[in-house]
Task: inverse folding
């Protein structure tokens, strides 16, 4: 890797480059809906069906079904009526129903044997993530991260985009981070978000909470950047072990979307316990809008996350549901770069 200068920020947005990778599983999810379930024909025949009844009919689990429907809404294939009922759009009816003369189902037939498409059929029914990159000898992402070789490779993957993501986030939260002193970066990977944050805000110190073997990877990366005096690593399991409590900012960057609702809520609960009144929580990543109608690149990325992790891209309203019961005051969502953005909330 070339020498990293965290003071130098990019002048352009890498969204177009990232989308080629972020959307790579979306076609297989739509292919599963068309080829395995004839999903759109069913909606045409049962216009106005509720989400719960839809899941019951197909025996789908809530998390993957929500990802599929969000992708279909963002793509303009379906819409929701005022009572939440699901209906087809003209595009969905004309091109995705099997009795239409313009049916495009055969166009997806070449991917019928795709391992990823087959995985989506299983995930919709079981809710359980597939093996990493659909490898038959692989574990799911969460288990794979306990392997040192995999963890190193995956951390490098996240780190390369995290430099620009972290720099843009650090700049965007400048008005909210002023006056705060110590940030806890939960599941912080290589520590790149902490590193970019303290570089932008020298008054701040940060602690990266990571489990083995990623904790040692983080220590080496932080030392390589010359930031060991400002950024420390706390080795812990974020679910089982106590968190440091001498913090007034908790950063959850690209974290909650790796977990299902119960685990994500547990992380938010622990963030609340760690923060004092007036403390700030920052949720950063790819976030769906409140209506779950897009943005399309985020809905496409959510299909990838749904496949390899226990999570998905949550919406602005879902993050509000995680936070409001704990007395957090939510602040508006803001975009940063690369189809990512953030929400902040203050503990009252």
Result:
């Amino acid at each position: 890797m070339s020498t990293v200068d965290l003071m130098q920020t990019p002048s352009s947005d890498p969204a177009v480059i990232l989308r080629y990778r972020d959307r790579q599983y979306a076609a297989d999810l739509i292919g599963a809906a068309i080829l395995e379930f004839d999903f759109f024909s069913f909606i045409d025949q049962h216009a106005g069906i509720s989400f719960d009844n839809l899941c019951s009919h197909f025996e789908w689990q809530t998390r993957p079904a929500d990802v599929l429907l969000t992708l279909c809404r963002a793509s303009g294939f379906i819409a929701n009526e005022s009572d939440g009922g699901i209906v087809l759009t003209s595009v969905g009816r004309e091109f995705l129903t099997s009795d239409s003369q313009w049916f495009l189902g055969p166009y997806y037939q070449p991917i019928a044997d795709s391992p990823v498409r087959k995985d989506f059929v299983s995930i919709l029914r079981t809710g359980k993530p597939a093996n990493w990159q659909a490898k038959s000898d692989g574990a799911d992402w969460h288990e794979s991260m306990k392997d040192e070789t995999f963890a190193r490779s995956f951390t490098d993957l996240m780190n390369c985009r995290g430099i620009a993501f972290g720099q843009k986030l650090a700049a965007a939260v400048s008005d909210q981070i002023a006056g705060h002193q110590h940030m806890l970066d939960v599941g912080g990977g290589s520590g790149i978000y902490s590193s970019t944050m303290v570089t932008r805000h020298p008054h701040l110190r940060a602690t990266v909470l990571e489990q083995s073997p990623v904790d040692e990877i983080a220590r080496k990366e932080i030392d390589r950047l010359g930031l060991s005096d400002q950024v420390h690593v706390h080795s812990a399991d974020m679910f089982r072990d106590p968190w440091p409590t001498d913090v007034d900012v908790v950063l959850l960057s690209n974290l909650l979307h790796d977990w299902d609702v119960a685990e994500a809520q547990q992380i938010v609960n622990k963030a609340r316990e760690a923060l004092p009144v007036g403390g700030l929580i920052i949720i950063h990543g790819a976030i769906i809008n409140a209506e779950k109608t897009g943005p399309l690149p985020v809905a496409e990325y959510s299909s990838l996350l749904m496949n390899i992790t226990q999570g998905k891209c949550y919406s602005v309203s879902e993050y509000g549901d995680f936070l409001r019961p704990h007395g957090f005051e939510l602040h508006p969502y803001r975009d940063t770069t690369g189809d990512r953005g953030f929400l902040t909330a203050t503990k009252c």
